Amino acid sequence: MGNICEINQRNVGLIDAIEQGDIVLAFDLIKKHFPILAAQDLIPNGIPPPNNRVEVAELQDILFQLKCQRFIEIIRTSSSTIDAIRYAQTHLKPTNNKSKEQVKEVTALIAYADPRQSQSSHLLGQQRREQLASQPNVIYQYKLQLKKLLDNIH
Questions:
Q1: Which of 34, 52, 122, 129 reaches 20 to 30 Å from 18, CA-CA?
Q2: Which segments constitute the CTLH domain (predicted)?
Q3: Helices (H), the chain
């Protein structure tokens, strides 16, 4: 699993990727270093899932927020709305009322020739990235708890 210093470095790399808007890299780092979050069922390779449904919901919410941010980054950097539409159709499937509201808010950006003039323009700012970048600390804390648990078993 790696020592705590390695886990911290992974967390910093993930935060940096999100703050720079490189959500593809962020997902790659999550898949590589935080498979618990990346896995649909949150039980990969026999690793126990979070202790309660609140933790599971929180981890799934982080992943969904990152998917929304990926959509935002596509809008920000692409001149083609088709890429954004395809991404939304594939990855932005709401599972609850909160995620439905998130999808409505981020997909509203596509309706404008200049999304910076939309009511959702705040989503395009660096502050949004920084706010989202603070979320992996939840993953980091869970990973530390899991490491301590596994260390106690051995």
A1: 52
A2: 14-82
A3: 4-19, 23-33, 35-38, 53-77, 81-91, 97-107, 126-133, 136-153
